[in-house]
Structures are given as structure tokens and as C-alpha cells.
């Protein structure tokens, strides 16, 4: 009896107190609603409002607890170096510009003044499907004066969309299209999937005759694209987009063929030719010209990506090194030019000459008057260093130091200032090899003969031993970095994180200049070890590449016991180290 | 013995439970939106035709309605081309031409210029009707953003009202007078006309109409033409009615005593363009045209059930009609008035 009595009370309560409609709602619907609310409240925490001085501003999202946040270049360009950011928990922080991808309309900033920031989790945006539920968080029309952002809900309307550059930059390639409302002020803000994971950065809409307001067609830069650029952006750089050095066109059968190729491109030097069919690029199937442009648009300059081409039914895979879209200094000029017109209708758009019967178009959020940004806020000063070609050189030092510190956890080589005497053999000839690397000179004895040269001269013709592409010089530069460190080596900057041998990996890269040559050092981010070195004797020569493998610990230092040497695509030999000694410094010029 | 109240409550609880179960089953069978979208996309067409001048996009959207690749779309200047390129979501493309158009509904059917089969299509017999509150999915190539093998853009929304388009006469410049689905999503964008509106299960309910702006307040209407309003007309067009007028074949002499514009009392605007539209320049007083009420600036749209897309085609079509027979014509007056009249020859 008691039980049914209780049931009666519960049922009565359901029928009277609670809204009737509620009781009719399927629990799965209520669960879905609850999950959505939870996802949104989780996603609110890392979403930020950006105040770019004056009336300018937009949105952003924090991606790591140390305060790195993403936004649009066209949002931060109004602010320059320093800006203010508000969180939904009421926190209000100084932020400093870190890196810029002007072509991709991405800015990396860093919030300052808090131990741990809430951070969004980045999803794999290639898994996003048309019809997936998504929501945007941001500061449309700069409504978030109380720092409480607005949320708009919708679906994924399209994936892998290509939007032509607005003017010369701001190209949206491979972007996500959504019908969640994206309005002025949402720019730079996050697009989340239904679990509250970050899938993109909102930045653009299709606007035409109705003024700059949402028409159900907004675009987000995919987070996977930004993951490609993130390492370079963290290095404080102004990062350029990539070009293959070749154009493609579809033939009548819909195959995508190389329609033009530059002889100086890496792809050409590795064997790609006119009329070859592009099958895959950066691990994606290429079925249309748009698909190719989409993939290319997500890649930074200097990246190496796999390219599969077919010629007479034979498929070949290359790891091609990509060049930059812009000429040296071109992007920097654009960045220094200040504000960037938000992507959307251009000044010659018909909407700009509104017809008398048209409703007033909402006014574009005015960007700040460009202040003479000579005086930075105190909080920001310590995090900024101006240098040509960089958005903020301070962060290049930060990244260089981080990588070098991780390297040094595998051993400190700075005390080994004597001559490094390496002996081993070089299959397949199997001959004995003796190599001596000093500060001022180097020498080697290989089956092909004896070679040596001074190191205080220009190294652009130091290609010995023959056919190695400059193995001896490369090894000397290796010793130089290990002994002197990046600060004393010469000009060493952090280039970013990029693949070397296979798609999917990202190694930390130093770009270094010494004795008239450039070289690159690739570090394994998991162990901190130096994985490879590339030596570019001249701009157009195939680089000599050393891969350092099979490390052994000697006296607390990790030494590679195997150095693979290759030039361009051809393998020179595997240098197996048997013995290593440090001798007193070689005599002058010996 | 259970108290009466408790008994009642138990019954209510049981009823609730039954309702939950029923709903539960329904929920469990509803496919995720992404799957519904994926299954509908092969039936959506991207159309490329005439236009391309400032403010006039040379593209629009369409819906595949037969396995041989017939396309239902809205009738617009985009179709005013010899050949219209159709691109499906897998990148497959073919050329099509106008099979016929209904000026009253402002819809058109295209037929492929080659033999095709097994193209995924919407069966119009299965089309559903929607009411206020029905959740819908919109498919279109708005802004032309979907190129090649990219799928059309998808949006979701709700039918806000089912209401006649001309509830307030003269506000929308359209000849269509029937009910439309008014939608709460911004589905009417450049290039979206002719796109599909489906229900949550991906069943066709409507066709996105051409862009209409409210002349009273300047706002743009987001709406769709209900499929049930279009079905009969589509069937007629597919059966060959309202087909475009064609020049007489070499061996066809036409009518023994063909109708002449002059005897009808119609003076058309001079034939200066390749495809000059058949606008009335003047009407001869007392003529059959005058008696039927034709006026200068009327556009002759159909003659004897044939679509006349130009002055030249109108003259070709007249060659088929005996001068002593009454002739049915449709004229468009202004932007939104469609008149069907019969021109009776003077005895």
C-alpha cells in the first residue's frame, strides 16, 4: 500500500507541479538537451572576447592552459601587438601577439597573468560530417560587454569548402561551412562540435545583398589546418602558405594533371613532370582541382608532404618540400600595413551602394584608430621583441630555448671542444671511415680518398666526399651546434614543427645560417633528440641530409651510432660509428 | 483494496510509460542527421547556365526527379541557355535542356541531352506535405560554394507557417499565388533557388523558390513551394506539355493558313537580340488581341500550350496554328500578374 501511495504522490506531482509537456518528452531528448547544455558550458570557459582597442575587437579561444589562444588575423591586426581579453568567468587579461598566418587569417596570441587558463580540446576536424550539430561561441556585434559570450547553434552545412582570397590574402581553404549564425564580432571565435571540442575558427561568411549579417552561410578555418601552422606560429613568425611550384588542371576524364611546373621547384627536382597525374597529396585523394587547392591551402611554407603521382600506370610517392606563396618581405609589408579588411563584400560590392528601399545594413564594427603603438602596456613589454619578419621574436627565443633544453636532457656536449674523432665504416663499400671534426677545420678518410677543408670560409662549395652532397661539412655543422649551442652557432631561429619523413609526424626545426650556408636541424619532440640535419650548400642544390639513429649512451650523452647520409632522393650511405674520441683541438688549419 | 486516487495515478503512470515506449521506438529509428543528409545528397543537382553578369549568378540548384536524370528547378534566366550543365554530388556532370516550364508556378523541368539511368532521385509520388512546426532540411548550392564533387550546402530550420504568397497583394513580385512554406532559416540565398526542402527523414516536401524581397519593408523571404502544389504540373511537363516552342522541321509545312501577328493585332518589340523576349509593343484597336485585353508591355509567355522563350520562337510556333482557330496565350503583366486569354479570330 505504502508503495502505491508513494507512486500516487509522484504521479500527482508529475501531473500538476511539473509542466505537462516535460513528462511527454522522451528521456533521450532530455538527455540530449542536458548533454548539449553541458558541452556548451564546458566550451564557454576557454572562449574569449578580444578587445583590440577603441571599438575594434572580436572573439578567440584558448587552446592550452599556458594561455595560447587563437583568433583571426583580421581581428588582431587592429590591435597590433597588445590587446585585452575577457573570459566568461569575468577574468580580464592582457594578451600579446605571438604569431601570424596572414594568408590563412589566423593569429596566435598569448594571454598573460594567470597560472592556468581553461583550454579547449582540439578535435580531428577531418572527421566532421555534413549534418553534424555544431555551435559557435563569440562576441557578435561586440555584445559581450559583460564578458558573457553569445552562443549560436546549427549544423555543418559543408566540408572542404574553398573560398577565394579576399584581395591578395585571407584565403579560406578546406574550411567548414555552418548555418550557426556567424556575425561581425564572431570573427576569431571557436566552432565546437556537439561534444564541445574545437573543430574550427569562425572568420568569414557569405555576405552579399543583405549587408554584413548572417545569412546562414558562415565559414570556419578547420582546426586541422591550424594544427599544421601551430608550431610555426608559436615561433613568433609571420608564416607563409605553401606552393608546390606546379599548377594542376582536370582533363576530360576528370583526372588531375600537372599543367605547369617550375624547374626550380623541389617537386620538379624530385622528378614530377608536366602531365603527371596527381593521385594523392598530403594523404588526401585528389579528385578535383578544388580538392588540390584545398589541401595546398592548409599547408605552411617549408613543409614536406607526401605526393603520389601516376605516370603510365606507375605510381610514385615523393616527400616534396613546399615553397612559399609570397616573395620574401611581401607578407611582412602587409602585416605592417596594419588593419585588414574583413573578408566579405569588397568596396565595389553592390551592397555598398544601397538602394533607397533597402533596410540599413548593420554597420561593420569599426576597427580602432591605429594608435601609434610605441608604448606597450607594462605587462606585455617583457613578452615582446620586435624583429623584421617576425610577429614577435620573443617567442622565437622561447621556442628555441625549449627545444634546446629538451635536447640537452640527452647530454651536454658543450665541454667537448676538442676535435671529434669518429671512426666506423660506410657500407655498401664497407670501407673504413675516419672523420675528424674540429672548430676550424675538418677532415675525413673514406674509400674514395682523403678530404678536408677549413671551416672559417664559405662552405657553399664544400661538397666532399664526392656524391655525398657535403657530408663532411654537414657533420662539422652538427658538431658546431652541439658544442656551441644555438646562441653561439651563428644565426639560429626556430622555424616551427613540420614533417620530415612521413605525414603525421611533426619535428621541431631550427633554421641556421653559418659560413654562407643554410642548414636545418630536426628534433624529435618526444625525446628531444636531434633526428636529422639538412645542409643546403646553395639555394638550388639538393640538400645533404643526415639522419641520426640508434643512439647509445656514452658518458651520459646520447650518441647516434648510425648516421644515414642522402642527397636529395639518392642514398649515399649509412655511416656506422664504431669509436668516438675527443682529441685536443687540431692545430691551426690542420 | 487500493485507494481510488492511487489507482488513477497508477493508470496515469502506466499510460505515461506506454507513451514513453512509443516515443522511444520512434526516436530509436530516426537516423542521425548526417546519415539523412548523406542519403539525400546524390539527388541534389548543381546547375550552371546563363547569367554571370553583375548581380546575376549563372548558377542555381535543382532536384533530381527521375532515374534518367530529369531535374526539377525554378524557372529563371539561368535556364535561358542552349544547354545547362548539371553537376551531381559525386562530381558527375551532364548537359541538360529545358523540357518545359510552368510560368504560373515558376518551375521548370530539365531533361538530360544524353541517355542516363540509375541516377538517385526523389520520387514525387513519395513527396510529403509539411505543416507549421515541421522541422526541415534545406539543400542548395547557395553562393555556388559547392564545386565539382562537393556536396550542396545543408541547413536546418522549421516551417513557420503555410500561407499564401500573395496574402498581401503586390508585396512579393511573383506570379505564384498558392501557399508557401515560410521558413525560419536563411534558405533563400543567391543560387539556392531550385534546392530541396526535405523533412527530418530526407523525404522531399518542397522546392526553394527564387529570391523574393518584400517591397514594403525590404526584407528577404525564406520560403519553399510545397511539392503537393507542384506535382500535377511536373507530371504535365514530363508528359510533354508546356514544352518550349521549336522551329518547324524541314519537311513540316505547318498550318495551311498560318496565324499572323498582324491578324491578331499584336505588334511586338523589334527583334534586335539573338533571343528578343516577346514583349507587346502595341495592340491594334478592335483586333482579337485588343478584345482579349492585351496591353503594351505584356510579355507573351505561352502560345497554344507551348513555351515561347523568344520572339523568333513565337513566330515559328504561329506557323503551326490555323488562322481561323482560337488561340490560347499566356501573358505576364508586370512582375506578378499572369493572364491566360484566348484570342478569337475576327470572322
Topology:
The complex is a heterodimer of chains A (590) and B (347).
Chain A: H1 2-16, H2 20-24, H3 27-44, E1 47-51, E2 57-62, E3 68-71, H4 73-76, E4 82-87, E5 92-101, E6 106-111, E7 133-138, E8 150-163, E9 172-178, E10 190-193, E11 198-205, E12 218-222, H5 223-234, E13 242-243, E14 246-250, E15 256-261, H6 266-269, E16 277-281, E17 284-285, H7 289-296, E18 304-311, E19 314-321, E20 323-324, H8 330-336, H9 378-381, H10 394-408, E21 419-426, E22 431-437, E23 441-446, E24 449-454, H11 471-489, E25 491-498, E26 507-514, E27 517-523, E28 530-536, E29 544-554, E30 557-567, E31 570-583
Antiparallel strand pairs in A: 1-2, 1-4, 2-3, 3-6, 4-5, 5-6, 7-8, 7-10, 8-9, 9-12, 10-11, 11-12, 13-20, 14-15, 16-17, 16-18, 18-19, 21-22, 21-31, 22-23, 23-24, 25-26, 26-27, 27-28, 28-29, 29-30, 30-31
Chain B: H1 4-29, H2 33-40, E1 44-48, E2 59-64, E3 71-74, E4 84-87, E5 93-102, E6 107-112, E7 135-140, E8 153-164, E9 179-183, E10 196-199, E11 204-208, E12 212-213, E13 220-221, E14 223-226, H3 227-238, H4 261-264, E15 266-268, E16 280-283, H5 288-292, E17 299-303, E18 306-307, H6 311-318, E19 327-333, E20 337-343
Antiparallel strand pairs in B: 1-2, 1-4, 2-3, 3-6, 4-5, 5-6, 7-8, 7-10, 8-9, 9-14, 10-11, 11-14, 12-13, 15-16, 17-18, 17-19, 19-20
What's the main sheet of chain B like? 6 strands, antiparallel, barrel
Residue-averaged pLDDT of chain A, rounded? Answer: 87
Reading the helices and strands of chain B in chain order gives HHEEEEEEEEEEEEEEHHEEHEEHEE
If you compute it from the alpha carbons, what radius of gyration of chain A comes out, rounded to the nearest whole angstrom?
28 Å
By DSSP, the count of extended strands of chain A is 31
Q: What can be said about the biggest beta sheet of chain A?
A: 11 strands, antiparallel
* Secondary-structure arrangement, i.e. CATH architecture of the largest domain in chain A: Beta Barrel
Overall domain count of chain A: 4
The order of strands across the largest sheet of chain A is 24-23-22-21-31-30-29-28-27-26-25
The gyration radius over C-alpha positions of chain B equals 24 Å
Largest interface: A-B, 51 and 51 residues
Spans of chain A of 5+ residues with little confidence (pLDDT < 50)?
1-20, 345-372
Which strand order does the major sheet of chain B show?
1-2-3-6-5-4
| Total helical segments of chain A | 11
Assembly category: heterodimer
Shape of chain A: globular
Which class do the helix and strand fractions of chain B yield?
alpha+beta
Q: Into how many domains do the coordinates of chain B divide?
A: 2
Amino acid at each position: 500500500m505504502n508503495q502505491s501511495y508513494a507512486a500516487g504522490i509522484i504521479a500527482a506531482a508529475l501531473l500538476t507541479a511539473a509542466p505537462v509537456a516535460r513528462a511527454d518528452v522522451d528521456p533521450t531528448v532530455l538527455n540530449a538537451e542536458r548533454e548539449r547544455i553541458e558541452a556548451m558550458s564546458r566550451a564557454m570557459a576557454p572562449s574569449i572576447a578580444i578587445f583590440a582597442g577603441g571599438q575594434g575587437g572580436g572573439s578567440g579561444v584558448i587552446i592550452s592552459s599556458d594561455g595560447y589562444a587563437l583568433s583571426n588575423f583580421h581581428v588582431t591586426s587592429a590591435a597590433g601587438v597588445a590587446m585585452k581579453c575577457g573570459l566568461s568567468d569575468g577574468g580580464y587579461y592582457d594578451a600579446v601577439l605571438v604569431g601570424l598566418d596572414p594568408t590563412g587569417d589566423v593569429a596566435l596570441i598569448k594571454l598573460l597573468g594567470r597560472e592556468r587558463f581553461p583550454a579547449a580540446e582540439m578535435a580531428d576536424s577531418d572527421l566532421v560530417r555534413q549534418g553534424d550539430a555544431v555551435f559557435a561561441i563569440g562576441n557578435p556585434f561586440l555584445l559581450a560587454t559583460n564578458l558573457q559570450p553569445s552562443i549560436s547553434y546549427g549544423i555543418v552545412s559543408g566540408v572542404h569548402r574553398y573560398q577565394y582570397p579576399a584581395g591578395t590574402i585571407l584565403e579560406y581553404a578546406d574550411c567548414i561551412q555552418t548555418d550557426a549564425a556567424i556575425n561581425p564580432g564572431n570573427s576569431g571565435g571557436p566552432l565546437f562540435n556537439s561534444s564541445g571540442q574545437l573543430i574550427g575558427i569562425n572568420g568569414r561568411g557569405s555576405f552579399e545583398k543583405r549587408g554584413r549579417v548572417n545569412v546562414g552561410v558562415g565559414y570556419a578555418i578547420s582546426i586541422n589546418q591550424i594544427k599544421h601552422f601551430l608550431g610555426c606560429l608559436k615561433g613568433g613568425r609571420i608564416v607563409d602558405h605553401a606552393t608546390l611550384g606546379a599548377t594542376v588542371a582536370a582533363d576530360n576524364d576528370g583526372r588531375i594533371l600537372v599543367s605547369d611546373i617550375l624547374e626550380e621547384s623541389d617537386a620538379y627536382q624530385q622528378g614530377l613532370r608536366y602531365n603527371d597525374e596527381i593521385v594523392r597529396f598530403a594523404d588526401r585523394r585528389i579528385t578535383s582541382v578544388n580538392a588540390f587547392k584545398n589541401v595546398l591551402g592548409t599547408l605552411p611554407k617549408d613543409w614536406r608532404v607526401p605526393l603520389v603521382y601516376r605516370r603510365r600506370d606507375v605510381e610514385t610517392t615523393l616527400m616534396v618540400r613546399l615553397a612559399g606563396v609570397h616573395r620574401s618581405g611581401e607578407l611582412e609589408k602587409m602585416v605592417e600595413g596594419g588593419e585588414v579588411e574583413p573578408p566579405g563584400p569588397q568596396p565595389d560590392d553592390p551592397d555598398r551602394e544601397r538602394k533607397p528601399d533597402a533596410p540599413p545594413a548593420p554597420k561593420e564594427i569599426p576597427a580602432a584608430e591605429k594608435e601609434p603603438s610605441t608604448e606597450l602596456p607594462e605587462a606585455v613589454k617583457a613578452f615582446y621583441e620586435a624583429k623584421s619578419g617576425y610577429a614577435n621574436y620573443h617567442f622565437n627565443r622561447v621556442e628555441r630555448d625549449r627545444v634546446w633544453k629538451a635536447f640537452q636532457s640527452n647530454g651536454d656536449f658543450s665541454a667537448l671542444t676538442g676535435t671529434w674523432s669518429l671512426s666506423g665504416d660506410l657500407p655498401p663499400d664497407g670501407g673504413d671511415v675516419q672523420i675528424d671534426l674540429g672548430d676550424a677545420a675538418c677532415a675525413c678518410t673514406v674509400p674514395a680518398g682523403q678530404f678536408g677543408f677549413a671551416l672559417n670560409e664559405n662552405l657553399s662549395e664544400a661538397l666532399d666526399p664526392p656524391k655525398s652532397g657535403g657530408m663532411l661539412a654537414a657533420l662539422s655543422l652538427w658538431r658546431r651546434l652541439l658544442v656551441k649551442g644555438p646562441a653561439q652557432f651563428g644565426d639560429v631561429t626556430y622555424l616551427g614543427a613540420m614533417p620530415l619523413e612521413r605525414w603525421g609526424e611533426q619535428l621541431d626545426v631550427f633554421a641556421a645560417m653559418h659560413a654562407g650556408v643554410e642548414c636545418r636541424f630536426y628534433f624529435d619532440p618526444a625525446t628531444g633528440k636531434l633526428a636529422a640535419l639538412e645542409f643546403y650548400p646553395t639555394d638550388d642544390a639538393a640538400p645533404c641530409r643526415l639522419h641520426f639513429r640508434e643512439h647509445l649512451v656514452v658518458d651520459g650523452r646520447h650518441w647516434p651510432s648510425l648516421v644515414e647520409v642522402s642527397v636529395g632522393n639518392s642514398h649515399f650511405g649509412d655511416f656506422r660509428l664504431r669509436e668516438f674520441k675527443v682529441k685536443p683541438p687540431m692545430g691551426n688549419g690542420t | 483494496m487500493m485507494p481510488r486516487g492511487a489507482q488513477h495515478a497508477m493508470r496515469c503512470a502506466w499510460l505515461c510509460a506506454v507513451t514513453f515506449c512509443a516515443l522511444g521506438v520512434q526516436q530509436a529509428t530516426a537516423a542521425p542527421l548526417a546519415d539523412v543528409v548523406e542519403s539525400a545528397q546524390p539527388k541534389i543537382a548543381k546547375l550552371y547556365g546563363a547569367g554571370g553578369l553583375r548581380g546575376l549568378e549563372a548558377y542555381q540548384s535543382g532536384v533530381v526527379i527521375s532515374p534518367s536524370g530529369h531535374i526539377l528547378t525554378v524557372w529563371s534566366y539561368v535556364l535561358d541557355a542552349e544547354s545547362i550543365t548539371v553537376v551531381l554530388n559525386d562530381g558527375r556532370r551532364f548537359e541538360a535542356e529545358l523540357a518545359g516550364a510552368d510560368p504560373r508556378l515558376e518551375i521548370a523541368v530539365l531533361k538530360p541531352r544524353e541517355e542516363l539511368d540509375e541516377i538517385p532521385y526523389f520520387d514525387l509520388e513519395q513527396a510529403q506535405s509539411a505543416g507549421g512546426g515541421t522541422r526541415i532540411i534545406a539543400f542548395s548550392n547557395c553562393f555556388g560554394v559547392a564545386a565539382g564533387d562537393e556536396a550542396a550546402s545543408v541547413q536546418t530550420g522549421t516551417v513557420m507557417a503555410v500561407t499564401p504568397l500573395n496574402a498581401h497583394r503586390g508585396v512579393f513580385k511573383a506570379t505564384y499565388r498558392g501557399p508557401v512554406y515560410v521558413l525560419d532559416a536563411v534558405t533563400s540565398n543567391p543560387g539556392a533557388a531550385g534546392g530541396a526542402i526535405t523533412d527530418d527523414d530526407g523525404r522531399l516536401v518542397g522546392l526553394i523558390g527564387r529570391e523574393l524581397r518584400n517591397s514594403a519593408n525590404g526584407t528577404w523571404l525564406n520560403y519553399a513551394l510545397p511539392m503537393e502544389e507542384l506535382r500535377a504540373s511536373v507530371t504535365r511537363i514530363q508528359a510533354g506539355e508546356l514544352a518550349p516552342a521549336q522551329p518547324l522541321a524541314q519537311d513540316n509545312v505547318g498550318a495551311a493558313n498560318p496565324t499572323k501577328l498582324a491578324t491578331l493585332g499584336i505588334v511586338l518589340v523589334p527583334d534586335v537580340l539573338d533571343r528578343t523576349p516577346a514583349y507587346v509593343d502595341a495592340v491594334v484597336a478592335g483586333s482579337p488581341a485588343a478584345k482579349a485585353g492585351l496591353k503594351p508591355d505584356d510579355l507573351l509567355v505561352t502560345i497554344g500550350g507551348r513555351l515561347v522563350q523568344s520572339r523568333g520562337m513565337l513566330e515559328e510556333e504561329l506557323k503551326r496554328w490555323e488562322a481561323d482557330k482560337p488561340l490560347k496565350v499566356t501573358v505576364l503583366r508586370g512582375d506578378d500578374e499572369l493572364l491566360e486569354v484566348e484570342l478569337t479570330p475576327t470572322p
